[in-house]
Protein backbone atom coordinates (compact mmCIF):
# COMPACT_ATOMS: atom_id res chain seq x y z
CA UNK A 1 0.00 0.00 0.00
CA UNK A 2 2.17 2.92 -1.21
CA UNK A 3 1.57 6.19 0.64
CA UNK A 4 2.70 9.56 -0.67
CA UNK A 5 2.44 13.16 0.45
CA UNK A 6 -0.54 15.10 -0.91
CA UNK A 7 0.94 18.55 -1.43
CA UNK A 8 -2.12 19.69 -3.37
CA UNK A 9 -4.25 19.65 -0.24
CA UNK A 10 -1.72 20.13 2.58
CA UNK A 11 1.56 22.04 2.27
CA UNK A 12 4.73 21.10 4.12
CA UNK A 13 4.32 24.21 6.28
CA UNK A 14 0.80 23.16 7.29
CA UNK A 15 1.89 19.63 8.15
CA UNK A 16 4.84 20.91 10.19
CA UNK A 17 2.49 23.18 12.17
CA UNK A 18 0.35 20.10 12.82
CA UNK A 19 3.38 18.18 14.15
CA UNK A 20 4.51 21.13 16.27
CA UNK A 21 1.04 21.51 17.81
CA UNK A 22 0.79 17.78 18.54
CA UNK A 23 4.19 17.80 20.25
CA UNK A 24 3.26 20.84 22.35
CA UNK A 25 -0.02 19.23 23.48
CA UNK A 26 1.42 15.82 24.41
CA UNK A 27 3.97 14.31 26.74
CA UNK A 28 5.69 10.96 26.22
CA UNK A 29 5.20 8.75 29.27
CA UNK A 30 5.98 5.13 30.00
CA UNK A 31 3.75 2.97 27.85
CA UNK A 32 2.18 5.73 25.81
CA UNK A 33 1.35 9.42 25.45
CA UNK A 34 -0.24 11.80 27.92
CA UNK A 35 -2.42 14.81 27.04
CA UNK A 36 -1.85 17.36 29.85
CA UNK A 37 -4.01 19.89 28.04
CA UNK A 38 -7.81 19.67 28.12
CA UNK A 39 -7.89 20.75 24.49
CA UNK A 40 -9.25 17.94 22.33
CA UNK A 41 -7.07 16.77 19.46
CA UNK A 42 -9.61 14.49 17.76
CA UNK A 43 -10.51 17.13 15.17
CA UNK A 44 -6.87 17.35 14.07
CA UNK A 45 -6.51 13.56 13.92
CA UNK A 46 -9.48 13.43 11.55
CA UNK A 47 -7.85 15.82 9.08
CA UNK A 48 -4.42 14.13 9.13
CA UNK A 49 -5.21 11.71 6.21
CA UNK A 50 -5.74 14.77 3.98
CA UNK A 51 -1.97 15.23 3.95
CA UNK A 52 -1.39 11.87 2.21
CA UNK A 53 -2.57 9.83 -0.76
CA UNK A 54 -3.08 6.10 -0.36
CA UNK A 55 -3.36 3.61 -3.24
CA UNK A 56 -5.46 1.60 -3.35
CA UNK A 57 -7.69 4.00 -1.46
CA UNK A 58 -8.92 3.29 2.04
CA UNK A 59 -12.21 4.21 3.64
CA UNK A 60 -11.76 7.48 5.44
CA UNK A 61 -12.54 5.91 8.82
CA UNK A 62 -9.88 3.22 8.24
CA UNK A 63 -7.34 5.83 7.12
CA UNK A 64 -8.00 7.88 10.26
CA UNK A 65 -7.36 4.86 12.47
CA UNK A 66 -4.11 3.92 10.69
CA UNK A 67 -2.68 7.45 10.63
CA UNK A 68 -3.72 8.08 14.24
CA UNK A 69 -1.80 5.02 15.41
CA UNK A 70 1.20 5.97 13.23
CA UNK A 71 1.13 9.50 14.67
CA UNK A 72 1.13 8.24 18.27
CA UNK A 73 3.90 5.72 17.54
CA UNK A 74 6.10 8.36 15.87
CA UNK A 75 5.52 10.78 18.74
CA UNK A 76 6.50 8.13 21.27
CA UNK A 77 9.47 6.63 19.41
CA UNK A 78 10.47 9.53 17.10
CA UNK A 79 11.07 11.12 14.75
CA UNK A 80 7.80 12.94 14.09
CA UNK A 81 8.24 13.62 10.37
CA UNK A 82 6.23 12.97 7.22
CA UNK A 83 8.62 10.23 6.05
CA UNK A 84 8.54 8.47 9.42
CA UNK A 85 4.75 8.70 9.57
CA UNK A 86 4.43 7.21 6.07
CA UNK A 87 6.78 4.33 6.91
CA UNK A 88 4.92 3.55 10.14
CA UNK A 89 1.47 3.77 8.49
CA UNK A 90 2.55 1.33 5.76
CA UNK A 91 3.87 -1.05 8.43
CA UNK A 92 0.58 -0.87 10.38
CA UNK A 93 -1.35 -1.60 7.20
CA UNK A 94 0.80 -4.69 6.51
CA UNK A 95 0.30 -5.90 10.08
CA UNK A 96 -3.45 -5.49 9.77
CA UNK A 97 -3.45 -7.51 6.55
CA UNK A 98 -1.75 -10.40 8.35
CA UNK A 99 -4.72 -10.84 10.70
CA UNK A 100 -6.98 -13.72 9.68
CA UNK A 101 -10.40 -13.02 8.22
CA UNK A 102 -13.37 -13.45 10.57
CA UNK A 103 -17.10 -13.62 9.98
CA UNK A 104 -18.92 -10.51 11.24
CA UNK A 105 -22.67 -10.03 11.44
CA UNK A 106 -24.57 -6.86 12.27
CA UNK A 107 -28.28 -6.47 12.79
CA UNK A 108 -30.60 -3.57 13.47
CA UNK A 109 -34.27 -2.67 13.15
CA UNK A 110 -35.49 -1.17 9.88
CA UNK A 111 -38.51 1.08 9.43
CA UNK A 112 -40.80 -1.20 7.41
CA UNK A 113 -44.29 -2.04 8.67
CA UNK A 114 -46.18 -5.20 7.86
CA UNK A 115 -43.37 -7.62 6.95
CA UNK A 116 -44.44 -11.24 7.39
CA UNK A 117 -42.49 -13.32 9.92
CA UNK A 118 -41.67 -15.89 7.25
CA UNK A 119 -40.65 -13.29 4.67
CA UNK A 120 -36.95 -12.83 3.78
CA UNK A 121 -35.68 -10.42 1.11
CA UNK A 122 -32.05 -10.92 0.11
CA UNK A 123 -29.63 -8.41 -1.38
CA UNK A 124 -25.92 -8.44 -2.14
CA UNK A 125 -23.37 -5.63 -2.26
CA UNK A 126 -19.89 -6.93 -3.05
CA UNK A 127 -19.22 -9.59 -0.44
CA UNK A 128 -21.70 -8.06 2.02
CA UNK A 129 -24.89 -10.11 2.25
CA UNK A 130 -28.05 -8.31 3.36
CA UNK A 131 -31.26 -9.93 4.59
CA UNK A 132 -34.47 -8.05 5.36
CA UNK A 133 -36.78 -10.22 7.44
CA UNK A 134 -39.67 -10.27 9.88
CA UNK A 135 -38.12 -12.64 12.41
CA UNK A 136 -34.60 -13.06 13.80
CA UNK A 137 -32.65 -16.33 13.89
CA UNK A 138 -32.34 -17.60 17.47
CA UNK A 139 -28.56 -17.07 17.66
CA UNK A 140 -28.97 -13.33 17.00
CA UNK A 141 -31.73 -12.66 19.54
CA UNK A 142 -30.80 -10.59 22.60
CA UNK A 143 -32.53 -9.89 25.91
CA UNK A 144 -32.74 -6.30 27.25
CA UNK A 145 -29.54 -5.12 28.93
CA UNK A 146 -27.82 -2.03 30.32
CA UNK A 147 -25.07 -0.23 28.39
CA UNK A 148 -22.65 1.85 30.45
CA UNK A 149 -22.75 4.79 27.99
CA UNK A 150 -26.31 4.68 26.68
CA UNK A 151 -28.32 3.21 29.53
CA UNK A 152 -31.17 0.75 29.06
CA UNK A 153 -31.14 -1.05 25.70
CA UNK A 154 -34.17 -3.03 24.53
CA UNK A 155 -32.98 -4.72 21.31
CA UNK A 156 -36.45 -5.58 20.02
CA UNK A 157 -37.61 -1.96 19.95
CA UNK A 158 -38.93 0.01 18.19
CA UNK A 159 -41.90 -2.22 17.47
CA UNK A 160 -43.89 -2.38 14.22
CA UNK A 161 -40.75 -2.79 12.16
CA UNK A 162 -38.59 -5.37 10.44
CA UNK A 163 -35.03 -6.58 10.95
CA UNK A 164 -32.06 -6.16 8.66
CA UNK A 165 -29.10 -8.52 9.00
CA UNK A 166 -25.75 -7.92 7.29
CA UNK A 167 -22.73 -10.21 7.12
CA UNK A 168 -19.20 -10.00 5.72
CA UNK A 169 -15.69 -11.33 6.25
CA UNK A 170 -13.16 -8.85 7.61
CA UNK A 171 -10.09 -8.66 9.81
CA UNK A 172 -11.17 -5.99 12.29
CA UNK A 173 -14.52 -5.12 13.84
CA UNK A 174 -14.37 -1.41 12.94
CA UNK A 175 -13.63 -2.15 9.28
CA UNK A 176 -16.41 -4.76 9.13
CA UNK A 177 -18.98 -2.41 10.69
CA UNK A 178 -17.93 0.42 8.35
CA UNK A 179 -18.45 -1.79 5.30
CA UNK A 180 -21.77 -3.20 6.49
CA UNK A 181 -23.21 0.21 7.41
CA UNK A 182 -21.99 1.62 4.07
CA UNK A 183 -23.84 -1.22 2.31
CA UNK A 184 -26.97 -0.60 4.38
CA UNK A 185 -26.95 3.14 3.63
CA UNK A 186 -26.56 2.39 -0.08
CA UNK A 187 -29.48 -0.06 -0.02
CA UNK A 188 -31.75 2.34 1.88
CA UNK A 189 -30.83 5.24 -0.44
CA UNK A 190 -31.78 3.24 -3.54
CA UNK A 191 -35.02 2.01 -1.99
CA UNK A 192 -35.91 5.55 -0.86
CA UNK A 193 -35.16 6.86 -4.35
CA UNK A 194 -37.44 4.32 -6.01
CA UNK A 195 -40.13 4.70 -3.34
CA UNK A 196 -40.27 8.51 -3.68
CA UNK A 197 -39.65 8.79 -7.45
CA UNK A 198 -42.29 10.95 -9.07
CA UNK A 199 -43.96 11.77 -5.74
CA UNK A 200 -44.62 15.16 -4.17
CA UNK A 201 -45.98 16.07 -0.77
CA UNK A 202 -47.43 19.16 0.85
CA UNK A 203 -46.90 17.65 4.30
CA UNK A 204 -44.46 19.32 6.64
CA UNK A 205 -43.59 19.48 10.31
CA UNK A 206 -40.61 18.40 12.36
CA UNK A 207 -41.31 14.67 11.94
CA UNK A 208 -41.54 14.76 8.13
CA UNK A 209 -38.63 13.28 6.20
CA UNK A 210 -37.99 12.95 2.46
CA UNK A 211 -37.50 9.19 2.69
CA UNK A 212 -39.31 6.74 4.94
CA UNK A 213 -36.69 3.99 5.13
CA UNK A 214 -34.09 4.21 7.92
CA UNK A 215 -32.44 2.00 10.50
CA UNK A 216 -33.23 1.73 14.19
CA UNK A 217 -31.30 3.27 17.10
CA UNK A 218 -29.01 0.32 17.91
CA UNK A 219 -26.70 -1.87 15.83
CA UNK A 220 -25.58 -5.16 17.37
CA UNK A 221 -22.34 -6.79 16.19
CA UNK A 222 -21.42 -10.49 16.26
CA UNK A 223 -18.09 -12.13 15.44
CA UNK A 224 -18.07 -15.79 14.40
CA UNK A 225 -21.70 -16.06 15.64
CA UNK A 226 -20.87 -14.66 19.12
CA UNK A 227 -22.21 -11.33 20.41
CA UNK A 228 -19.29 -8.97 20.99
CA UNK A 229 -20.75 -7.63 24.22
CA UNK A 230 -23.20 -5.24 25.77
CA UNK A 231 -20.67 -2.39 25.77
CA UNK A 232 -19.65 -2.95 22.14
CA UNK A 233 -22.90 -1.97 20.43
CA UNK A 234 -23.16 0.84 17.90
CA UNK A 235 -25.68 3.63 18.25
CA UNK A 236 -27.28 6.01 15.74
CA UNK A 237 -27.16 9.51 17.32
CA UNK A 238 -29.64 10.83 14.73
CA UNK A 239 -32.42 8.42 15.71
CA UNK A 240 -35.70 10.28 16.15
CA UNK A 241 -38.49 8.34 17.85
CA UNK A 242 -41.22 10.78 16.73
CA UNK A 243 -40.13 10.52 13.10
CA UNK A 244 -39.93 6.73 13.38
CA UNK A 245 -43.51 6.50 14.68
CA UNK A 246 -44.95 8.79 12.00
CA UNK A 247 -47.09 7.06 9.32
CA UNK A 248 -45.02 5.26 6.71
CA UNK A 249 -45.55 2.90 3.74
CA UNK A 250 -46.22 -0.76 4.34
CA UNK A 251 -44.33 -3.77 3.04
CA UNK A 252 -46.38 -3.96 -0.18
CA UNK A 253 -44.90 -0.66 -1.37
CA UNK A 254 -41.34 -1.91 -0.88
CA UNK A 255 -42.02 -5.26 -2.54
CA UNK A 256 -42.79 -3.32 -5.72
CA UNK A 257 -39.36 -1.67 -5.77
CA UNK A 258 -37.20 -4.65 -4.71
CA UNK A 259 -36.50 -5.78 -8.34
CA UNK A 260 -35.43 -2.26 -9.34
CA UNK A 261 -33.19 -2.00 -6.27
CA UNK A 262 -31.46 -5.31 -7.04
CA UNK A 263 -30.95 -4.24 -10.65
CA UNK A 264 -29.34 -0.96 -9.53
CA UNK A 265 -27.06 -2.73 -7.02
CA UNK A 266 -25.95 -5.14 -9.74
CA UNK A 267 -25.23 -2.29 -12.16
CA UNK A 268 -23.24 -0.39 -9.53
CA UNK A 269 -21.18 -3.39 -8.46
CA UNK A 270 -19.03 -3.34 -11.61
CA UNK A 271 -19.60 0.28 -12.58
CA UNK A 272 -16.49 2.26 -13.66
CA UNK A 273 -17.91 5.31 -11.82
CA UNK A 274 -18.76 3.39 -8.64
CA UNK A 275 -16.32 5.52 -6.61
CA UNK A 276 -18.45 8.59 -7.48
CA UNK A 277 -22.01 7.26 -7.63
CA UNK A 278 -21.96 5.16 -4.45
CA UNK A 279 -20.80 8.01 -2.14
CA UNK A 280 -23.37 10.30 -3.79
CA UNK A 281 -26.11 7.80 -2.95
CA UNK A 282 -24.88 7.36 0.62
CA UNK A 283 -24.88 11.14 1.09
CA UNK A 284 -28.43 11.28 -0.28
CA UNK A 285 -29.56 8.79 2.40
CA UNK A 286 -28.49 11.36 5.00
CA UNK A 287 -30.81 13.81 3.22
CA UNK A 288 -33.65 11.28 3.07
CA UNK A 289 -33.42 10.74 6.85
CA UNK A 290 -33.12 14.42 7.82
CA UNK A 291 -36.12 15.94 9.57
CA UNK A 292 -34.57 19.43 9.55
CA UNK A 293 -35.15 21.16 6.22
CA UNK A 294 -31.88 23.07 5.98
CA UNK A 295 -29.82 19.94 6.57
CA UNK A 296 -31.90 18.01 4.02
CA UNK A 297 -31.33 20.67 1.37
CA UNK A 298 -27.58 20.83 2.04
CA UNK A 299 -27.12 17.07 1.79
CA UNK A 300 -29.08 16.72 -1.46
CA UNK A 301 -26.95 19.54 -2.90
CA UNK A 302 -23.76 17.82 -1.70
CA UNK A 303 -24.90 14.55 -3.32
CA UNK A 304 -25.44 16.37 -6.62
CA UNK A 305 -22.09 18.12 -6.20
CA UNK A 306 -20.42 14.72 -5.72
CA UNK A 307 -21.51 13.76 -9.24
CA UNK A 308 -20.67 17.02 -11.02
CA UNK A 309 -17.53 18.35 -9.34
CA UNK A 310 -14.07 16.82 -9.62
CA UNK A 311 -12.71 15.13 -6.49
CA UNK A 312 -10.24 17.44 -4.79
CA UNK A 313 -11.22 20.40 -6.95
CA UNK A 314 -10.48 23.75 -5.33
CA UNK A 315 -13.18 25.42 -7.42
CA UNK A 316 -16.45 23.92 -6.17
CA UNK A 317 -18.59 26.81 -7.34
CA UNK A 318 -22.37 26.56 -7.33
CA UNK A 319 -22.40 27.70 -10.95
CA UNK A 320 -20.36 24.68 -12.02
CA UNK A 321 -22.93 22.36 -10.44
CA UNK A 322 -25.81 24.28 -12.07
CA UNK A 323 -24.22 24.22 -15.53
CA UNK A 324 -23.45 20.50 -15.41
CA UNK A 325 -26.70 19.39 -13.75
CA UNK A 326 -28.73 21.01 -16.55
CA UNK A 327 -26.68 19.75 -19.49
CA UNK A 328 -29.51 17.65 -20.95
CA UNK A 329 -32.61 19.57 -19.86
CA UNK A 330 -34.84 20.82 -22.67
CA UNK A 331 -36.25 23.49 -20.34
CA UNK A 332 -32.84 24.25 -18.88
CA UNK A 333 -33.57 27.95 -18.35
CA UNK A 334 -36.19 27.15 -15.73
CA UNK A 335 -34.12 24.40 -14.11
CA UNK A 336 -31.10 26.73 -13.91
CA UNK A 337 -33.31 29.33 -12.25
CA UNK A 338 -34.53 26.76 -9.69
CA UNK A 339 -31.02 25.54 -8.92
CA UNK A 340 -29.73 29.08 -8.68
CA UNK A 341 -32.48 29.84 -6.16
CA UNK A 342 -31.58 26.72 -4.15
CA UNK A 343 -27.88 27.61 -4.17
CA UNK A 344 -28.73 31.00 -2.68
CA UNK A 345 -31.26 29.57 -0.24
CA UNK A 346 -28.74 27.15 1.25
CA UNK A 347 -26.57 30.12 2.23
CA UNK A 348 -29.38 32.01 3.92
CA UNK A 349 -31.23 31.68 7.21
CA UNK A 350 -34.85 30.86 6.47
CA UNK A 351 -37.53 30.26 9.10
CA UNK A 352 -39.57 27.10 8.65
CA UNK A 353 -43.21 28.09 8.19
CA UNK A 354 -45.25 24.88 8.30
CA UNK A 355 -46.84 24.30 4.88
CA UNK A 356 -44.89 27.28 3.53
CA UNK A 357 -41.50 25.82 4.44
CA UNK A 358 -39.22 26.86 1.56
CA UNK A 359 -36.63 24.26 2.52
CA UNK A 360 -39.16 21.43 2.20
CA UNK A 361 -40.40 22.59 -1.20
CA UNK A 362 -36.97 23.18 -2.70
CA UNK A 363 -35.48 20.00 -1.24
CA UNK A 364 -38.16 18.08 -3.14
CA UNK A 365 -37.12 19.85 -6.34
CA UNK A 366 -33.52 18.89 -5.62
CA UNK A 367 -34.44 15.32 -4.67
CA UNK A 368 -36.35 14.90 -7.94
CA UNK A 369 -33.44 16.24 -10.01
CA UNK A 370 -30.88 14.13 -8.13
CA UNK A 371 -33.03 11.03 -8.65
CA UNK A 372 -33.18 11.55 -12.41
CA UNK A 373 -29.44 12.13 -12.71
CA UNK A 374 -28.21 9.35 -10.41
CA UNK A 375 -30.43 6.72 -12.06
CA UNK A 376 -29.36 7.91 -15.52
CA UNK A 377 -25.66 7.51 -14.71
CA UNK A 378 -26.16 4.17 -12.95
CA UNK A 379 -27.66 2.62 -16.07
CA UNK A 380 -26.27 4.80 -18.87
CA UNK A 381 -22.86 5.84 -17.53
CA UNK A 382 -21.07 2.51 -17.75
CA UNK A 383 -19.41 3.39 -21.07
CA UNK A 384 -17.36 6.17 -19.46
CA UNK A 385 -13.87 5.11 -18.40
CA UNK A 386 -13.50 7.79 -15.73
CA UNK A 387 -15.25 10.58 -13.86
CA UNK A 388 -13.16 13.09 -15.80
CA UNK A 389 -14.51 11.67 -19.07
CA UNK A 390 -18.09 12.03 -17.86
CA UNK A 391 -17.49 15.65 -16.82
CA UNK A 392 -15.89 16.41 -20.19
CA UNK A 393 -19.01 14.97 -21.82
CA UNK A 394 -21.45 17.14 -19.85
CA UNK A 395 -19.24 20.19 -20.49
CA UNK A 396 -19.71 19.85 -24.26
CA UNK A 397 -21.77 22.58 -25.97
CA UNK A 398 -25.54 22.21 -25.67
CA UNK A 399 -26.76 22.87 -29.25
CA UNK A 400 -26.21 20.76 -32.35
CA UNK A 401 -24.71 23.75 -34.14
CA UNK A 402 -22.12 24.32 -31.43
CA UNK A 403 -21.31 20.60 -31.22
CA UNK A 404 -20.74 20.37 -34.99
CA UNK A 405 -18.50 23.42 -34.85
CA UNK A 406 -16.49 21.85 -32.04
CA UNK A 407 -16.24 18.55 -33.96
CA UNK A 408 -14.95 20.43 -37.00
CA UNK A 409 -12.19 21.99 -34.90
CA UNK A 410 -11.29 18.62 -33.36
CA UNK A 411 -11.13 17.00 -36.82
CA UNK A 412 -8.89 19.81 -38.01
CA UNK A 413 -6.54 19.33 -35.06
CA UNK A 414 -6.42 15.57 -35.60
CA UNK A 415 -5.49 16.13 -39.26
CA UNK A 416 -2.66 18.41 -38.14
CA UNK A 417 -1.36 15.75 -35.78
CA UNK A 418 -1.42 13.13 -38.55
CA UNK A 419 0.62 15.36 -40.85
CA UNK A 420 3.38 16.09 -38.36
Oligomer: single chain
Ends apart, CA distance between termini: 42 Å
- Overall residue-averaged pLDDT value: 88
Helical content class: 40-55%
Beta percentage is 5-15%
Q: Radius of gyration in whole Å, from Cα?
A: 24 Å
The unreliable regions are 351-356
Tally of helical segments: 14
Can you tell me the overall shape?
globular
What would you say this structure looks like, in words?
With 420 residues, the chain is α+β, with helices and mostly antiparallel strands. The protein is 49% helix and 14% strand. The protein has 14 helices and 13 strands. The chain has helices at 12-25, 42-47, 60-77, 82-97, 173-196, 241-245, 251-269, 274-289, 293-308, 318-325, 332-345, 358-380, 387-394, 400-418, and strands at 3-5, 27-29, 32-34, 52-54, 102-110, 120-125, 128-133, 145-147, 151-153, 162-170, 218-223, 226-227, 234-235. The strands form four sheets. Strands 5, 6, 7, 10, 11, 12 and 13 form a seven-stranded antiparallel sheet that branches. A two-stranded antiparallel sheet has the order 1-4. Strands 2-3 form a two-stranded antiparallel sheet. Strand 6 and strand 7 (128-133) form a beta hairpin. The longest helix is centred in the middle third of the chain and has 24 residues, at 173-196. It is globular, with a radius of gyration of 24 Å. Residues 351-356 have low confidence and may be disordered.
Keywords:
420 residues; alpha+beta; seven-stranded antiparallel β-sheet; two-stranded antiparallel ribbon; 13 strands; globular
Give the gist of this structure.
With 420 residues, the chain is of the alpha+beta class. It contains 14 helices and 13 strands.
Amino acid sequence: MPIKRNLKLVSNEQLQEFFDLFESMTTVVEGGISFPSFRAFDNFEEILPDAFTVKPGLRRSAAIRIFRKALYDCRREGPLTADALIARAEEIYRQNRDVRLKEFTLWTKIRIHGIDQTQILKFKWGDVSIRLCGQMPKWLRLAPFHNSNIGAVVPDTPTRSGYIILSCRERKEDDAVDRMLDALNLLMALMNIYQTRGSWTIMSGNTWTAGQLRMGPFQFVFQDRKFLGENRIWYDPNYDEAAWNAPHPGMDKYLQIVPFTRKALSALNSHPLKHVLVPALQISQDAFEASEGNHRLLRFWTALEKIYVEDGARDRSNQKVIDRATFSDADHHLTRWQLGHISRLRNEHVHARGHGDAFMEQSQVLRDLFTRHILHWIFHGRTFDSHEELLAYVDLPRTDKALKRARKLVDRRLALNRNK
